[in-house]
Amino acid sequence: MSRPQDPPRGFFPFGNPFRMLSPKGSDLSPWLLSVLNDFELVLAERLKKLIPKNKDDILTISWMKLAMESLCETHSDIKILITDLHLPVSDWEDKWIDVYLDISVKLLDLCNAFSSELTRLNQAHLLLQCAKHNLESSCSEKYIRARSSLDSWRQHVFLKNPRIGNCCAILHSLVESLNLPKVKNSPKGKVLMQAFYGVKVQTVYICSVFVTAFSGSTEDLLALSVSGKPLWAKAVSDLQIVVNAEIRNIVSSGGATVLKELEAIDGSVKKLYPIIQDGMNPIEVEPFTDYVLEMGKKAEEFSQGLDQLTEEVDEFFKIVLSGRDTLLCNLRSTDSASNSAVGRNEGQR
After folding, report:
1. 169 lies in a domain?
2. In the predicted model, is pLDDT for residue 314 greater than 50?
3. Would you say residue 123 lies in a domain?
4. DSSP of 269-331, one letter per residue?
5. What is the pTM of this model?
6. Residue 206: pLDDT above 60?
């Protein structure tokens, strides 16, 4: 049974990682403490920026773009930290490398799933363009075509993507990986692992929000329990409270989607559909033209937003892939150097 003073276990099935990671004051030099504190303070500020002043901004394409930009910055920062620590790969323990490689491949899989969904949503834009073109005509036959395009659009955008469905297992695996390996006799290693912990918490949480946004279900929305010791702990806790509450509110409202721009377009489509379905002359319906313009404007803004978000997801993919490739190249270089040294030693015998 946990003692009353223990932090809540939450999503950590193996206990609190900071029992293993938190360095005692005597373990770290002032310089290492400064390096770690600087990293954590920047991460804390980055997480605070993701807490919107207006809850209506949550689960908009612009907020998701900001969240993905934040991930890119954090993953770039961890590469800089590794360089600043002067901790060559040859000093990394095998278990650190295994954890890093396993996590990176899972993140690449998530990126591919997100890109797949963004492409699928953007493909539907052509159907709305076709519908708008036909609705701007005065030909009844074209109104029938417009109705068919709107039908096809709704069927396409609200169809579940199996690749997003597969993200559930990846997320739960990443949650389990938050329990980092023990670090012994390596102050720099402790700093590295503690910094990695912050990176992973931010990454896993934001990815869970993306999966929720694309699936329309809160089943994969995480609420991560974090020790109070890292400088970014309160920021990530505040972020989860605000964002999770709004997402659950959106889902409970029974909308067809939790993506707010997509819901807005669907609202415009619902206004138009009965007008062209009832067989009346749409031009004689007073708000008809306004509805068509409204749908076209929202659809264009959504498509542009999807393009920008896709670029950020692609950038994150490149950063993760680059870090993975760099590590593998360094490992091969280290192995080659070791083999050469062994060869020289054997030749001298």
Report:
1. yes
2. yes
3. yes
4. HHHHHHHHHTTS-GGGSTTHHHHHHHHHHHHHHHHHHHHHHHHHHHHHHHHHHHHHHHHHHHH
5. 0.85
6. yes
